[in-house]
Amino acid sequence: xxxxxxxxxxxxxxxxxxxxxxxxxxxxxxxxxxxxxxxxxxxxxxxxxxxxxxxxxxxxxxxxxxxxxxxxxxxxxxxxxxxxxxxxxxxxxxxxxxxx
Length: 100
Known about the structure:
single chain; 45% strand; globular; LexA/Signal_pep-like_sf
């Protein structure tokens, strides 16, 4: 997933990233191949229903924050799957725009 490397590099440099992720787990909210803008965010500013770019079990995914508890976020996709709890230190950015 070359878009992941581009996003990580831009976010670590303090800028936003524009990527075209491919997949179906976020369909209805982000369609495969759409242009997605990911912006840096402090984990303290993340809210329920935000789509975050997050490190998850050795990979990086775009998923929805379903719940927040202390220093963790419950993440899931847009088609009903709940992945589980992720530490807030794993959040790299938040989706700020989705375009065709």
